[in-house]
Give the backbone structure.
Amino acid sequence: MTPTLAQLRYLVAVADCRSITGAAASVFVAQSALSRAVQAMERDLGVELLARRGRGWTSRRRGPGSSGWPAPCSTRWRPSTT
């Protein structure tokens, strides 16, 4: 199954904020809904996209071209303030 834009947006928010709580607040959804969406995407793709690290989350970066991927993506999906 192909990830939805919402799922990708949630994934980027978690990678940016490094927490489910912060990510949920930044995209205006409940923590449980965000968590379920990311888990569904991981299940559908068959890969762990986020890793739990103490009190936060980090992205699972794979390959030389994948480092730093959250920043360019998140700037494209943030709503305009103008």
